[in-house]
Design brief:
674 residues; mainly alpha; three-stranded antiparallel beta sheet; 22 helices; disordered N terminus; binds 1-deoxymannojirimycin; Seven-hairpin_glycosidases; disulfide bond; alpha-1,2-Mannosidase
């Protein structure tokens, strides 16, 4: 190895050069390896001394140069580094505004949430918590429950889970192409109809306006409403005195009749008492429910009737009162009705033994009625939402999906029967909006509303059916040219219209209120006039069960003809129900006046002095309307309730943007109010 020392010794002429030597000899020296600080200092100094002056100057110059460069570069580069550092921190807080750029890990995250809590609250999986205590002012005030701390906690949890829902929803919305439904003139906004029907058990949507509503002054009850309260009290007196805890009052014989043996009238009337503010009556009835209502009975009940009256009545009372007793009872009856769906086609049987858990069709057929199997959905869907158990909704949704696909319809109009084995319509070719088909049409619209106007198939079927009505069933009578809905039997039109059809103007108006085509409202206006004439043209001012319209003008003949077999009146609600909707949506007082006439005629011809009201056999004979000795439960559940609501000017008294009435007038919440 070449060394500076060796080179200097070998060549006499001294030449200046720079060399750095790192030989072992240099390092170790005479004294061998010594790594002490003093030794190292000495050794360096010796080396430095051995360098020529030029070498030393060059080295010093290099050191000085490097030092100057270091200082300059530090001062000029310090700022940029500082800003880069700051910017990268800032970037973690705000997303760069570059269109199209998505950060894989979003820079902004929702405020930290406890994962478990959110999953636990995931609306599709968890049972619904008891609803926020009611804020319905009209109910008995001492039964109105103030929000507890628990409720406040639930609300907070609900709010935080909604953040997640909103994020998920926003994501979904981006992915889903927005669709517009257009059905012969009816255009539904995309946001009303973007998702296919699905089973979604949601947490209750608490109307945000509830608090604001509570601040408002209660609208005082007017004289007509007072008259309804009086009528209700009179009916209730008869029921209480002679039929307490039984299904129906027989007001003339001062006794009762039993259908299911489940206190049908009492349950049907619960929410009416709440709405009318009948505190004492409500409390008494509640006690009966708590102590006496048991479903563990060896009794056959009709699936449809017990669903709309009992399950529907319990659910709505639960919502209005917030009293969990009613939800418990609703769950019980709901579970006991489920065996009805165990059929080869999943189209439910008509009857269930709620004690034994068995179900069967009527003795003479394996058919079910179309209106019955398609008018239990609002109630079972709500039960799923409240319990978090999807089995109820699944069962009834399957029926709707199946019926949606069936052949045998006529421009959306359905036959009256469906077979529980084959799942096919039977008795094809007969189409009516009356008995056995009526509430199929009603529930198409109302389910669509209940579910937040997202289930397109329901809306399609409804719109198609109304077109079918217009095409095949609408006619005008003579001499007054009343628009009515007749029937079609194997291609032959019949000018027969059941009083039951008078639900239709109200349903059409409800659809129009919810954004459907305005000509539905026009049709509603024409039809409610007809329904009113079914009362006004009759001697007692009460409608018969069925009328036939005159298609040809004949001297001395009115529009309405009544056959002897059809001249009874069962205290039915449909016309009053539609009057209520018409008044709510138009504010036209004539609808209230028509309803007032009807109430007076009920009082005149059907009121029994010792308590209760009775159905009558002959609406054409004012001197002897032939009382039938029966007060149907729907007189308290529906007729008087709709009367009371019709006479009210308070749109918040069962707000139609928050509640949807089942076919027995039991209001159930709309899941996602507008
Ligand atoms: C009620 O039980 C219901 O309104 C049902 O939809 C039809 N019949 C009666 C009232 O008339």
């Amino acid at each position: 190895m070449y060394s500076a020392a060796a080179a200097a010794a070998a060549s006499p002429p001294r030449r200046d050069f720079i060399s750095i030597t790192l030989s072992p000899e240099d390092a170790v020296g005479a004294g061998g390896y010594n790594n002490s600080k003093a030794w190292r200092r000495r050794s360096c100094w010796r080396k430095w001394k051995q360098l020529s002056r030029l070498q030393r100057s060059v080295i010093l110059f290099l050191f000085a140069f490097l030092a100057v460069c270091g200082v300059i570069s530090y001062t000029s580069m310090g700022e940029p580094w500082k800003s880069v550092t700051n910017k990268s921190l800032d970037d973690q807080r705000t997303e760069p505004e570059i269109p199209g750029l998505k950060l894989a890990n979003p820079a902004v995250l929702p405020a930290p949430q406890k994962a478990d809590a959110n999953l636990g609250n995931y609306p599709e999986l968890s049972p619904q918590k008891p609803p926020k205590p009611p804020h319905v002012r009209r109910g008995p005030s001492n039964l109105q429950i103030k929000p507890s701390r628990r409720d406040v906690r639930l609300k907070t949890r609900h709010d935080s889970s909604r953040v997640v829902e909103e994020v998920v929803q926003a994501d979904k919305e981006e992915k889903t192409e927005k669709s517009v439904i257009s059905w012969r003139g009816a255009v539904i906004e995309p946001d009303q109809s973007t998702e296919p029907p699905s089973i979604k058990i949601k947490e209750p949507e608490k109307p945000s306006s509830v608090e604001a509503e509570d601040q408002k002054e209660p609208v005082p009850i007017n004289e007509r409403q007072m008259a309804v309260i009086e009528a209700f009290r009179h009916a209730w007196k008869g029921y209480k005195d002679f039929a307490w805890g039984h299904d129906e009052l027989k007001p003339l014989s001062k006794s009762y009749s039993e259908w299911f043996g489940l206190g049908l009238t009492l349950i049907d009337a619960l929410d009416t008492m709440w709405i009318l503010g009948l505190k004492e009556e409500f409390e008494e009835a509640r006690k009966w429910v708590a102590n006496n209502l048991v479903f563990d009975k060896n009794v056959d009940v009709n699936l449809f009737e017990s669903t709309i009256r009992i399950l529907g009545g319990l659910l709505s009372t639960y919502h209005l009162s917030g009293d969990s007793l009613f939800l418990e009872k609703a769950k019980d009856i709901g579970n006991r009705l489920m065996p009805a769906f165990k059929t080869p086609s999943k189209i439910p049987y008509s009857d269930v033994n709620i004690g034994r858990g068995t179900a069967h069709p009527p003795r003479w057929t394996s058919d079910s009625t179309v209106a019955e199997v398609t008018s239990i959905q609002l109630e079972f869907r709500e039960l799923s939402r409240l319990t978090g158990d999807e089995k109820f909704q699944k069962a009834v949704d399957e029926v709707m999906k199946h019926v949606h696909t069936l052949s045998g319809k006529n421009d959306g109009l359905v036959p009256m029967f469906i077979n529980t084995n084959s799942g096919q319509f039977t008795h094809l070719g007969v189409y009516t909006l009356g008995a056995r088909a009526d509430s199929y049409y009603e529930y198409l619209l109302k389910q669509w509303i209940q579910g937040g106007k997202k289930e397109n198939e329901l809306l399609e079927d409804y719109m198609r059916a109304i077109e079918g009505v217009k095409k095949h069933l609408l006619q005008r009578s003579q001499p007054k040219k009343l628009t009515f809905v007749g029937e079609l039997a194997h291609g032959h039109f019949s000018a027969k219209m059941d009083h039951l059809v008078c639900f239709l103007p109200g349903t059409l108006a409800l659809g129009a209120h919810n954004g459907l085509t305005a000509d539905h409202m026009k049709l509603a206006e024409a039809l409610i006039e007809t329904c009113y004439q079914m009362y006004a043209q009759v001697e007692t001012g009460l409608s018969p069960e069925i009328v036939h319209f005159n298609l040809h003008a004949q001297k001395g003949h009115k529009d309405v003809e009544i056959k002897p077999a059809d001249r009874h009146n069962l205290l039915r609600p449909e016309t009053v129900e539609s009057l209520f909707y018409m008044y709510r949506f138009t504010g036209d007082k004539k609808y209230q006046d028509w309803g007032w006439e009807i109430l007076q005629n009920f009082n005149k011809y059907t009121r029994v002095p010792t308590g209760g009201y009775t159905s009558i056999n002959n609406v054409q004979n004012p001197s002897n309307p032939e009382p039938r000795d029966k007060m149907e439960s729907f007189f308290l559940g529906e007729t008087l309730k709709y009367m009371f609501l019709l006479f009210s000017d308070d749109v918040d008294l069962i707000n139609l943007d928050k509640y949807v009435f089942n076919t027995e007038a039991h209001p159930l919440p709309i899941w996602a109010p507008a």
